[in-house]
What we know:
With 99 residues, this protein is α+β, with helices and mostly antiparallel strands.
Amino acid sequence: MNLIEIRLLGSDALDKIYHIDRSEEIHRQYQFSNGELSYTKKDLSIPHDPDFWDRHFNEWTSANDDGAAFFGALNNEVLAGFTILKLDLNPGVAQILAL
Length: 99
């Protein structure tokens, strides 16, 4: 069994995002409103689309080069998930750029 390892990565590793397959089938859309969680039936098919990553790649690379933190969740050396955080916008305040 492989364990997922969380590591701080540099922008040179950002191209690993292209290994993530975002495809999924959605059958319910959840909403939290007035203190209650409800759902509506909704059938959506989200295909694997490398162009999705292209639309964000330059922004995320620039942010990382400017000091944002790129954390990767790796299964061996394959990126399974990631987040990019802009740290210290104000004392104790960060912004999630990608998750």
